[in-house]
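Progress report, Aim 2. The chain analyzed during this reporting quarter is listed below.
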Amino acid sequence: MFEAEFAGKLPELRSREDYLTSCFFGALKYLPPNDGLFPLLNRSFNYRLGITLEKYLEIQGVELASFHEAQVHFWPRSSTYGEPDLVIIVQGTPGSFIIPVEVKYFSSKHGDKEEDQLTRYYKALGTVEGRKTFNIEAIREFTGDLLAFVYVTQFEAELEIEETLGVLESNGLSCAQDKFFHLRWQEMLKIIEAKLSKEHDAYRKAIYTDIRELMVFKNLLPFRQFSKLPSGLSAELLSQFPVFLYLQDPEGGPFFNGFPEIPKSLRLEYGTSIYYGGT
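Predicted structure tokens for the chain:
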């Protein structure tokens, strides 16, 4: 399915998150939602509540597995609020719900305060009036509730989500704290691999395999272990000259500020290479 990129035919698209979104979620469309989309969404996590979406829905008396239909709309455009990556509409006996999904690869969310894109998309899809501004009829006519807002990233995103919730709360939308869930690509790979290991149907297995190969190719991998130390750099030597990373905590929150200078004894004997963990 993604052979052109694997063969190096599409170098200009390799870092494009829209392309990744299209490939990954486009492939999931060919699977029943209970075999692809729903297990992934269930694993997303709400930092304020400290629970997964699956647990949150259980408390609400809702189960994603009970929905037999999931419409996935890519990049629907609002005349007022912008263009979220995905809008999922689920329908079944429990009712009808809408799930916005914003996807990131290397970047973080765009905008801040009232221009924060997560804030805008929540306002757009959480109300009947906001949904009327979209160019997709199914969204314009949707009258159910917003079930969850899922933010997909490669990196940690709690601070980003907290910033968004702060803006929404200042607008009187404190209920938003129950709706924002974070899902990391690395967590999704674990789910895809588990599905692949248990799948016997050749066609479904081919889809899982393609999705997994895409994620591995994109290096969306969970940390497994550090690579082996170079032969000349012993663990005993590192214990004498440990290397720490610096964290600073300005008003904007903690951020990585680089490694300290390599001790002279290491630099002179082994050069200036920095060895870091791999998969």
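Residues 202-217 form the longest helix (16 residues). Residues 266-279 have pLDDT under 50 and may be disordered. These observations will guide the mutagenesis work planned for the next reporting period.
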